[in-house]
Amino acid sequence: MSAVSEMSRKPSPRKFSWPGSEKWVLILLALMIAFLSAAPLVRLVWAAIAPQGVLDPGRLTDILATGKVLRATINTLWIAFSSTFLAVLFGTLAALLVVLTDMRLKRAWVFAFILPLMIPPQVTALAWVQAFAPSSIILDALGLALPAGTRHPLYSARGIILLLGLHNASLVFLTVRAGLRHLPADLVEVARSTGASPLRVLLTVILPLARPAIFAGAALCFVASAGNFGIQAMLGIPGRVPTLITLVYQQLNMSGPSALSDMAVLSLLIALITVAGLIVSSYLGGKRDVRVNGTSKLMKIQLGRWRFPLEISVWLWMAATLLLPLSALLTSSLTAGFGQALNAKTVTLVNYTNALLDYPAIRHAFITSLGLTLLTAIILTLASLFLAYYLSWQRSLLVKALQLATELAYALPGIVIGVAAILFFLKPLPLIQVSIYGTVWIILAAYLSNYLALVLRPTLAGFAQIERSLDEAAQIFGAGFLRRMRDIIMPIAAPSAMAGAILVFLTALNEIQVSILLVTSDTQTLGPMIIFLEEGGSSTLAAAVGCLMIAVVLAFMLLASLFSRRLPEGVLPWHV
């Protein structure tokens, strides 16, 4: 037998097969989420329980048992529970009015009701502080001004609870509204046909069926209240009402990185409180099975002669809780000194000129925030399109773990993400030996970790409207993964992904929760600027910056509304 024939019988060596583009993209997504979300959180936990590399339970007890930590913990829980109760009350009533009654001008009222949720909390707090200060121009014009020297009524735990309840009521409204829309109208009709009054139907049929949605909204409010830095800082620090989140901020400001290990303990405590709130709410919401078969459109309750008085009442409520504080903010921004009467002689645009042109720190903060927000929106929109593909059609264990990591990073308070980012990025990165601590890149890393779930949710809603057969047909004809994504999937899912990008833009441009611990004198962002200006005594300049931030929010809300007809229902929260 010839050597050639002998060689032909030998098995050919097996060639290495590289993973396809579909697997490579999943690997890159997994590395990104692990590096930006999972690893910093693991580092936070390790720094809290073993700062020297050895478990030290006694140290945890010593930190948590100190008087100031116990007081801050009690205040945090009291404020979170009380403000959640107010938010559930206001949000549920609003949802019932919008979904179940024939109230007119619903679209405009819902837009106004949702607006406080989109306005940065520190701007909301500043507006209320200026509206109810003893030197308030608005209250003075109404004859309701407080006597000079009176302690500000909002600098207290009650003030924090009130503002958090009003600010977070929109969260309950959104979840309860969605739950009411999926209730079966036939049960309501049967109850009404037996002679039950509208109130009895509400208490015995509608509210029990809507209970899971109410508890879901309560969970969101509890988490948002416990982690809301803007309102707690603006009211709690001058009012000497310490909470866990303000305690972390003040200790790190005074001691710097040397206090990180101790603050990691407090951050972990904040995280445990928020997670416990989510778990308890989920348990209460699902304790009884309230599912029903089939859904249909709920009938509207005819208000009759009560409709006009009710409409007047809800718009007066909106004037008192939205128009009054925003009017005070605008009035302050148009005067040279806080408390100065606004008239033809005192009106001035000097604060806006200073904010836009003459103060390099504010201009630099705006440019930094704009650049970081745009980059965050672009990266997360692209990542969410690919991740939504896997979550919709290839839900492997790895994909589920990635979604859990993104949801956890979004659910945790931003200040926890900030502490975790400092701990993880404080030392130089492996291999490249470059530290991003103190640069804009650590803020970008925290944004990417915190906001991925925010853009992923509407993107998933868009994927729910895509026929999988389109992707399968293209695959049969030999189209690769990236080409299918570019030519078929992305054009269809783009409107939902863009809506998510706008939500990220609205949230990140003015945010304060994440960046308050990460900014430096060279890397200022727009969100913390309000607090820095107010602390520095520049109240009118802070008001002008706040008004500009609200103007940006309104502009992007209106821009997103232009695409509303091409979006799945519920993607834009302010649409009826």
Summarize the structure in words.
The protein has helices spanning 3-9, 21-49, 57-64, 67-100, 106-118, 121-131, 137-141, 157-181, 185-193, 198-226, 229-239, 244-255, 260-285, 307-333, 350-358, 360-393, 397-411, 414-425, 440-463, 468-476, 481-509, 526-535, 539-561. The chain is mainly α and 576 residues long. The chain is 71% helix and 0% strand. It has 23 helices and no strands. It folds into two domains: 20-51 and 349-570, MetI-like fold; 66-286 and 309-340, MetI-like (MetI-like fold, Orthogonal Bundle). The protein is globular and about 75 Å long.
List the helices and strands and how they pair.
Blueprint: H1 3-9, H2 21-49, H3 57-64, H4 67-100, H5 106-118, H6 121-131, H7 137-141, H8 157-181, H9 185-193, H10 198-226, H11 229-239, H12 244-255, H13 260-285, H14 307-333, H15 350-358, H16 360-393, H17 397-411, H18 414-425, H19 440-463, H20 468-476, H21 481-509, H22 526-535, H23 539-561
Helix pairs in contact: 2-13, 2-17, 2-18, 4-8, 4-10, 5-8, 5-14, 6-11, 6-14, 8-10, 8-11, 9-10, 10-13, 12-13, 13-18, 14-23, 15-23, 16-19, 16-21, 17-19, 18-19, 19-21, 20-21, 21-23, 22-23
